[in-house]
Specification:
Order of helices and strands: EHEEHEEHHHHHHHEEHEEHEEH
Radius of gyration: 19 Å
CATH class of the largest domain: Alpha Beta
Shape: globular
Largest sheet: 6 strands, mixed
CATH topology of the largest domain: inorganic pyrophosphatase (n-terminal core)
Bound molecules: manganese (II) ion
CATH architecture of the largest domain: Alpha-Beta Complex
Number of domains: 2
Structural class: alpha/beta
């Protein structure tokens, strides 16, 4: 029997992209996701002739080998993403919507594909990827009040925050659980109102983790770059990504690196290019074996401690004006 797989990033953008699609075209599919950093998700799919696989918000370059494999196995693949794509396999069984522009999210691409059928969810995912300008543009002139736009923004930020952690046990909600909870609502504003206990759980966790991180002083900071090191605790692993986004929003001309200590002695690294000039993050992080990402936002999954100084030098070389 033919099977369906929905493979999606466990952050706000990945979840909101799939919510839009499955509300318009329901499928009884096997859901494959993980923490935000878990991106080689196609490796978990064993396909057979006629299976349908949807892949959302994970880099095609990082899944290239498995994509080629599932196409060979006979699957039809629908792939939508805004991360580095690399070489796209030529196959009539592959339909892809790929856009590496720094002002585009996967949720925005799905919103365009579905002609704004679930505009609010498209905006939540886009806010979640810290693309405020793009999200506001999607909602502009559509009759939303300032308060409604603010709530959609908050939900996006909280859902994005929920995706960070070194494994599922760090998270408030496993991404599949959060997907199932929100997918019942055509409109995220109804989720916020009618499932307020879930919204509140995210909000409370976010605020607690954030107040802890605000007591940290940077390892280094000047006009053009700043580097922070976070300790090896679940709260720090959860807050690292949204902390990076918050720093970027507060200091738009500065580049940021947030490093979280790992139990193996290395670091998990989040890099944000300056908001005012979104470039360089992907190139910087890709120089390290476990690094990758987008021009504006990238990371290194496991920076060995003995490469810390090398990373700091390269970071400062990239962004020192
Ligand atoms: Mn995304």
């Amino acid at each position: 029997m033919m099977a369906d797989f929905d493979v999606f990033n466990g952050d706000a953008d990945g979840i909101c992209a799939l919510v839009q699609l499955r509300q318009i075209e329901p499928r009884d599919s096997k859901l494959i996701t993980g923490v935000k950093r878990d991106i080689q998700l196609l490796s978990q799919v064993q396909a057979k002739e006629g299976d349908r696989i949807t892949v959302l918000d994970v880099s095609m370059a990082k899944n290239h080998g498995d994509l080629v494999r599932v196409l060979k196995e006979g699957a039809m693949v629908f792939y939508v993403d805004h991360h580095v794509a690399g070489e796209v396999p030529a196959s009539s069984s592959l339909i892809s919507l790929l856009n590496e522009s720094p002002n585009v999210s996967t949720s925005l691409l799905i919103n365009q594909y579905l002609r704004s059928a679930r505009l609010e969810w498209g905006a939540v995912g886009t806010f979640g990827d810290n693309l405020h300008h793009a999200a506001q543009g999607m909602l502009k002139g559509k009759g939303f009040t300032g308060e409604q736009v603010g709530l959609l923004n908050q939900l996006g930020v909280y859902m994005n925050y929920n995706g960070y952690g070194s494994d599922l046990s760090d998270l408030h909600f496993a991404p599949i659980e959060l997907y199932n909870l929100v997918c019942e609502y055509k409109n995220p504003l109804d989720f916020i109102r009618d499932s307020h206990q879930h919204f509140e759980r995210l909000e409370t966790g976010y605020n607690q983790d954030f107040s802890a991180v605000h007591s940290l002083t940077p390892l280094r900071a000047n006009k053009s770059c700043a580097i922070f090191i976070l300790p090896d605790y679940p709260w720090a692993r959860r807050v690292s990504g949204v902390f990076s986004n918050d720093l970027t929003n507060k200091h738009p001309d500065r580049a940021h690196a947030v490093l979280t200590e790992k139990s193996n002695g290395g670091y998990l690294v989040s890099v944000r290019a300056p908001l005012a000039s979104k470039h360089g993050a992907s190139k910087l992080c890709s120089q390290f074996p476990t690094g990758g990402g987008r021009e504006a936002a990238a990371g290194i999954n496991d920076l060995p401690a003995d490469q810390l100084n090398q990373f700091i030098d390269k970071f400062e070389q990239t962004y020192q004006s």
